[in-house]
Specification:
The protein is mainly beta and about 800 residues long. The protein contains 1 helix and 65 strands. Strands 4, 5, 6, 8, 11, 14 and 16 form a 7-stranded antiparallel sheet that branches. Strands 18, 21, 22, 24, 25 and 26 form a 6-stranded mixed sheet that branches. It is globular, with a radius of gyration of 28 Å. The two termini are about 25 Å apart.
C-alpha cells in the first residue's frame, strides 16, 4: 500500500498521502437478454440526456461525466417482452464528498431510480479517510446505515483526481460497481441518475461507466435466482469489507448471511459490512436468499485480511540553507532510501539520490544542492537486493491468489507514484481454439488488483469499433435506431446510406481490414443485392474499397454475420465506414470495426507474454506472437505502442525480432522484456531449440532496428541443476547501485509440463555478463509441473517483491514474495 509515501519538491514543499483500496468485483450470472451496454469509449448517443465525457488522470479511462447536481437520464425504447430488468454500472465518486460528516444543513445525496417508478438506491458516499468522523450510508440507503468511508468500493484512489486541503494534496476518488434487479414489463425504460447538495465540480462530482441493461422473464411462483454473487476480496487490517448479493424479484426476498457455514446473527440485509476487518474475520461468507417459494445459497466468497502497513518514516525537517535543500528523517532501523525524480506524472521513474548525508542524534541529515527548476524526493524502506545477495535478507511468502477472478499471471509491471499497472497474459477461447492476448490490471497496494480487461488482442481481431446505433458518432440517411444496431426495412425506408461516418483519423496507416457486422431477415430465395459496404475518404470523397453483399452470402435469418473488406490508407486519413441499404431485405448493422493488417496474421494464435516500458509520453509493449499456421510464425517478437497505456497500436513492420532457423533459437523466440539506458534499447528474450531454453539480447537506438548480440545466448541452463532445462522468461531488468538484476524462471529438463519449476535471481555490471545467485532458486520449487514461474521483480514503496505464478491452481493466479530481513 502507498500510505506515508512522502514526496518533497524543492520549489513547493508538499506532502502527498496515498492509500490502498478494497476490491469488490461483481459476478453476474443469468441476467437474461442484454439490451444495452456502453463503456463510453465512443461519443454518446441521444438515449442519454447528458453526453459529456471525461478521461481519468490515472488509467485514461473514458466515462460519462463529470456531473454535479441534477439528473442524468437514460431512455430505452422498443424493448422486448419481459418481467424483470437488471441494471449494472460503475459509479465514480470524485473528490471531497462529505458523506455523513457534512457540515452543511443538507447531506450530499446520490440516487438512481426508474422514471415514474421506485428509487433503487438513495445514499451517501465519502471517499476521504483522513477525518475521524468520516462516515457514509452506502451500502445501505441513506438513513439506514453508517459505515467507514469507501465501504464496498471496488476501487479507492485509483482515478487520479486530487483536492487541496491546508496546503496538502489528497487523491480522493472511489469506484462502486452497482447492480440492481427490479420488476419491469413496459416496452420503454427511463433510468434517472441524480445528485443533490453537491459543491462545485472541482470539489465534488460523479460519473458513470460500463453500464449494462438486461431483461428477463421470471415466473411468479419460482424460488429466487442469484444474479450477482458475493465476491471474494482482500481487506487491510482494520479496513472495511462489504459483500453484496442481488437476486430475482418475483416475490419478496429475505436474507441470512453465513460465516464459514454458520448463520451470522442479525445479518439479514442484501449486504454484509465488516467495518474493521480482523484476522478472525478471514474466511468464507455466503448468504441464503429466500422467498415464499424456496431458497438458494450463494457461492462462497472468501475474505482475506491483509497485514498492517509499515511504510518509510516521514521527513522530520525540510529547510533551505543558501543554495541547498536540507532534509532530515529518523533512523529507526527502516533502512530508508532517498530517491529523486524530476516528473511526478505516473508511472514516475524514481532513482537513488546521491547526496551528502550524515547521522546526527538518531537522524539522517541530507544536503542536496539546488540545481534544477523542479526536483522531487521521497523515502523508501526495506532491504536492498545487495542485502539479499550478501545473505542479510530472504524472500518470504507475502500474498497469494492475486487476480484469481481473471487469471492474473506473468505480469510486466510499471510502478508509478500513485498506482501500479500490470500487463498480463489474458487467455480465452474462440471457436474452440485457445488464444492468448494482453490484459491490464491496476493496484494501489500490489495485492488487490482491478482488471481493466484486454488492452491488446491477437492478430485478426478488431482494434477500432464504431457502433451503428451511436447517433452522435455515426450518421444515418435511412432507417431507425434499435438497442443493438441500426436497421432499415423494405417498403418503409428508401435506399440510401443507413450508416456512414465517423470521419475518424485514429486508424493506423497501412493495409488494414474493415469488418461489418450485419443481419437480414431472410437469407434464402432470389440472390438480390441487400447491401453495399465501403471504406471512404471523408475529406476527399474517394472510395478506398467496396464490397457488395448478396442475400445468399448470409448463413441464416436474423443472425449477425461478419463481412471483411481489406483497404489501404495512410496515417491520419479521414475515414468513414458506410453501409448502403438496397431495399430488398430487412438489414440491421451492429458495427463497423477495423482490424490492423490483413490475413494471414502472424500473431493470430497468441500475442502475449508482454514486456512494458514507458519512455517519455509513450508506452512500449513488446510481446511474443505466434500463428495458428506455424509456417507463418512459431514464435517471434512484435511491438505495440500507446499514448495512454491502455489502447495499443501494433507496429506495421511486425515482427521486429524473428527466430533464427538454426541454432539455440531455432524453434522460437519470445517472452521479451525491455530496458533502456543512455539512449540504447535492450530487448531480452528467450530462445528455444526444442530441448533447452536460453536467454539472449538484442539492442539498438530504436526498437524497429535491433541487432542481436554476437555473443548470444548470454544466459544458459546449468547441467544437473534446478535450471538444467530452462533459463527463460525473466522479469524486467532493474538497477540498484552498480548492479543490474533480473529474476528468471528455471526448470529441470524437458518435458516442461512434468518438469520442476521455480525462479531465481541473477545480476550483472554490464547487461551482458550475468552471474546467478549461488543459492538459487530463491523460492520453493514445484514437485512436478508449472508454478513459481513467470517472475516479475518490482520495488513498491521501498520494499522488493517477487511475483510468480501459483502452482497447483487451475485459474493460474499470482503469488507474491516479499524481501525481508533475516531473523
Amino acid at each position: 500500500m502507498f500510505f506515508n509515501s512522502h514526496v518533497v519538491t524543492r520549489n513547493c514543499f508538499t506532502t502527498i498521502l496515498l492509500t490502498g483500496f478494497l476490491a469488490l468485483l461483481p459476478s453476474s450470472k443469468g441476467l437474461g437478454q442484454l439490451v444495452y451496454t456502453n463503456n463510453f469509449e465512443n461519443p454518446v448517443g441521444l438515449e442519454w440526456s447528458r453526453t459529456n465525457r471525461d478521461v481519468t488522470p490515472i488509467g485514461a479511462r473514458t466515462f460519462l461525466g463529470q456531473f454535479g447536481n441534477g439528473t442524468v437520464t437514460l431512455a430505452l425504447t422498443n424493448l422486448p417482452p419481459h418481467t424483470e430488468a437488471d441494471l449494472s454500472f460503475d459509479l465514480l465518486i470524485i473528490r471531497s464528498w462529505d458523506g455523513l460528516a457534512s457540515l452543511s444543513s443538507a447531506y450530499e445525496i446520490w440516487s438512481v431510480g426508474i422514471g415514474g417508478g421506485p428509487i433503487l438506491l438513495r445514499t451517501t458516499f465519502c471517499p476521504f479517510e483522513q477525518a475521524s468522523n468520516a462516515r457514509q450510508s452506502y451500502p445501505a440507503p441513506y438513513g439506514r446505515g453508517s459505515f467507514p468511508p469507501n465501504t464496498g468500493a471496488a476501487e479507492r484512489f485509483s482515478l487520479g483526481y486530487y483536492f487541496y486541503v491546508q496546503d496538502k494534496t489528497y487523491f480522493w476518488d472511489a469506484v462502486y460497481r452497482l447492480d440492481f434487479r427490479f420488476t419491469h414489463s413496459g416496452n420503454s425504460l427511463v433510468l434517472n441518475f441524480a445528485a443533490s447538495a453537491l459543491e462545485p465540480l472541482d470539489n465534488e462530482s460523479w460519473g458513470l461507466d460500463n453500464i449494462a441493461v438486461a431483461l428477463d422473464t421470471i415466473v411468479s411462483d419460482a424460488p429466487p435466482r442469484i444474479t450477482r454473487q458475493p465476491n471474494s476480496q482482500t481487506a487491510a487490517l482494520n479496513g472495511p469489507a462489504a459483500f453484496i448479493v442481488v437476486a430475482t424479484t418475483n416475490s419478496p426476498l429475505s436474507y441470512q448471511w453465513r460465516f464459514n457455514g454458520s448463520d451470522l446473527p442479525a445479518q439479514i440485509n442484501p449486504y454484509l459490512v465488516i467495518p474493521r476487518a480482523q484476522p478472525s474475520n478471514a474466511g468464507l461468507y455466503s448468504v441464503v436468499t429466500s422467498n415464499s417459494f424456496g431458497s438458494v445459497v450463494s457461492e462462497p466468497a472468501r475474505l482475506t485480511v491483509g497485514p498492517p502497513f509499515a511504510g518509510p518514516p516521514p521527513f522530520d525537517a525540510i529547510k533551505r540553507d543558501s543554495n541547498a535543500l536540507v532534509l532530515a528523517w529518523s533512523n529507526l532501523g527502516t533502512n530508508a532510501i532517498l530517491e529523486k525524480t524530476t516528473d511526478l506524472v505516473p508511472p514516475t521513474a524514481w532513482t537513488n539520490a546521491t547526496v551528502a548525508a550524515g547521522w546526527t542524534g538518531g537522524q539522517i541529515v541530507a544536503t542536496i544542492p539546488i540545481e534544477t527548476t523542479n526536483e522531487f524526493f521521497r523515502l523508501r524502506s526495506g532491504p536492498s537486493l545487495t542485502d539479499f545477495w550478501d545473505g542479510k535478507a530472504e524472500w518470504i511468502p507475502d500474498a497469494e491468489g492475486l487476480g484469481r477472478d481473471f487469471g492474473f499471471h506473468f505480469p510486466s509491471m510499471l510502478a508509478g507514484d500513485r498506482d501500479i499497472w500490470a500487463y498480463y497474459i489474458a487467455n480465452y477461447s474462440k471457436n474452440g481454439q485457445s488464444k492468448s492476448a494482453v490484459g491490464r490490471a491496476r493496484s494501489m497496494d500490489g495485492i488487490v488488483w482491478i482488471n481493466d480487461g484486454m488492452v491488446m488482442d491477437i492478430g485478426g481481431e478488431p482494434r477500432w469499433f464504431y457502433q451503428s446505433e451511436q447517433r452522435s458518432f455515426v450518421d444515418h440517411k435511412t432507417g431507425r435506431w434499435e438497442p443493438d444496431g441500426w436497421s432499415a426495412t423494405p417498403g418503409i425506408d428508401p435506399p440510401d446510406h443507413m450508416v456512414y461516418g465517423p470521419y475518424t483519423t485514429e486508424v493506423a496507416g497501412g493495409t488494414n481490414t474493415a469488418r461489418f457486422r450485419l443481419m437480414i431477415d431472410q437469407h434464402t430465395g432470389l440472390n438480390d443485392i441487400v447491401a453495399v459496404v465501403d471504406v471512404n475518404d471523408g475529406a476527399l470523397l474517394k472510395v478506398l474499397a467496396t464490397r457488395t453483399i448478396y442475400r445468399n452470402d448470409f448463413a441464416g435469418d436474423m443472425t449477425y454475420q461478419e463481412f471483411d473488406l481489406p483497404f489501404q490508407s495512410r496515417t491520419g486519413q479521414n475515414l468513414e465506414f458506410r453501409v448502403w441499404f438496397a431495399r430488398t431485405a430487412y438489414v440491421k448493422s451492429d458495427y463497423a470495426a477495423v482490424i490492423q493488417g490483413t490475413a494471414p496474421f502472424w500473431d493470430d494464435r497468441l500475442a502475449t507474454f508482454p514486456g512494458v516500458w514507458k519512455d517519455s509520453a509513450t508506452y512500449y509493449l513488446v510481446y511474443e506472437g505466434a500463428a495458428e499456421n506455424l509456417a507463418l510464425s512459431p514464435g517471434d517478437i512484435g511491438l505495440a505502442t500507446s499514448s495512454d497505456g491502455r489502447h495499443f497500436v501494433k507496429n506495421t513492420g511486425n515482427p521486429i525480432l524473428r527466430h533464427n532457423p538454426s541454432g539455440w533459437e531455432s524453434v522460437n523466440v519470445g517472452t521479451p522484456s525491455l530496458f533502456k539506458e543512455n539512449g540504447v534499447w535492450y530487448l531480452f528474450y528467450h530462445g528455444f531449440d526444442g530441448s533447452k531454453v536460453r536467454i539472449g539480447v538484442a539492442s539498438g537506438t530504436t526498437l524497429t532496428d535491433l541487432i542481436k548480440y554476437a555473443g548470444n545466448p548470454i544466459f544458459s541452463p546449468d547441467a544437473g541443476a534446478w535450471d538444467s532445462g530452462t533459463a527463460g522468461r525473466r522479469s524486467a531488468v532493474v538497477k540498484e547501485a552498480s548492479y543490474y538484476y533480473f529474476a528468471y524462471e528455471g526448470s529441470t529438463d524437458y518435458s516442461f509440463n512434468t518438469a520442476q519449476w521455480s525462479s531465481g535471481l541473477a545480476r550483472s555490471t554490464n547487461l551482458l555478463d550475468w552471474v546467478k545467485y549461488p543459492s538459487n532458486p530463491v523460492i520453493p520449487q514445484t514437485l512436478s509441473g508449472f508454478g513459481y514461474d513467470g517472475p516479475e521483480l518490482v520495488r513498491l514503496d521501498g520494499t522488493w517483491y517477487l511475483y510468480v505464478r501459483m502452482s497447483f491452481d487451475p485459474e493460474a493466479p499470482t503469488k507474491r514474495f516479499r524481501l525481508a530481513w533475516r531473523p
